[in-house]
Amino acid sequence: MVSVDDLFPGFSTATVAADGIEIFTRSGGSGPPVLCLHGYPQTHTMWHRIAPELARDFTVVVADLRGYGQSSAPADTADHDTYTKRAMAADMVAVMRAHGHARFAVVGHDRGARVAYRMALDHPKTVTRVVSVDVIPTLDVWETINQARMMRLYHWAFLAQPAPLPETWIGHNPAGWVAQRVSRGAPTLPEWFDPRVLAHDQACFSEPARLAASCADYRAGATRDVDHDRADRDSGHRIAAPLAVYWGTRGNLVDGPDPIATWTRWCEQPVTGSSIPAGHFVPQENPDALIAALRRFLSAETDPISGD
Asked: Which partner for 161 in 41, 77, 165, 220 could form a disulfide, CB atoms 3.0-4.6 Å apart?
């Protein structure tokens, strides 16, 4: 596997036990703790342009979600509970406690943002602030998707098909699938995408257990994650922590519901955020703009829940 250690200067690595599995992490910096969670089909390496800069002001932990990267990839269950965002969120609460952080902010992109908001709903006394990058809640995606957005998000339905259909098809060329997803069908890799990151992610994705896990993630996203979201919405349970949403001007939220208005329905406090000139992969495509936005949002002087 291609080494990516030099992309995270000054960061240390650790493997943390969580609910019978192991989660791979990198951590660095000092200051208030911030957890960064990756999306699909990526790993923690997607934060290499963000984490070292944030570490100037914060203690930053980047982690591979269960089933991805160098974390454990347990076999799925028939009900897909193993790969719900609820299970992944519980993993990350354990990870942060192991790093000495009982309360922390969380920044998520893509699937990681789904873990982030689920964590804020399930562990309200743990999460101080939430950042969603190019994501609205899973339930809202399924309820508002139209033809144009389905063409962009076709992989949601494809990956959620029963095993082994997507695993078999992708398994013929997993490296090509990863390249296709990050390039969004373009014939060449975008110039802003570090080839070392692509090689690392392709190597991880080429392992059959991780390929199966990533499909299980989307199966949960079409079933149990929707159930969990609907239960919260129907009961009026909302996110207590301040939330900011940032989205690419050419990203997944184009032509969809208004991101701030959508998140406002899920939150107790006013939602902030803005679009950022980029496609879906905002942290890699326009890191400077995202870093500036994160610093503004994460640097509030008071703890929004405890008042400290």
From this structure: 165
User: Edge-to-edge strands of the sheet including 12-18?
Assistant: 12-18, 21-29, 59-63, 33-37, 104-109, 127-133, 243-248, 272-276
Helix axis angle, 195-205 to 174-183, nearest 10°: 140
Distances (CA, A) of 143 to 136, 146, 227: 11, 9, 13
Distance CA 288, CA 69 (A): 25
**Which phi and psi angles does 146 have, rounded to 5°?**
-120, -175
Count of CA atoms in the C-beta half-sphere (13 A) of 15:
8
Which residues, 6 or more positions from 131, have their beta carbon under 8 angstroms from its beta carbon? 105, 106, 107, 108, 113, 116, 243, 244, 245, 246, 294, 297, 298
Q: Write down the pTM of the prediction.
A: 0.96
Residue 162, token pair as written in the block: 């029963």
Statement: residue 28 has pLDDT above 90? yes
- 3 state SS for 189-225: CCCCCCHHHHHHHHHHHCCHHHHHHHHHHHHHHCCHH
Q: Residue 75: how many CB atoms within 10 A of its CB?
A: 9
Instruction: Report residue 37 as tokens.
Output: 């969670």
DSSP 65: P
Which residues participate in catalysis according to the annotation?
Answer: 110, 280
Buried-state track 89-117, b at ≥16 Cβ within 10 A, e below 16: bbbbbbbbebbebebbbbbbbbbbbbbbb
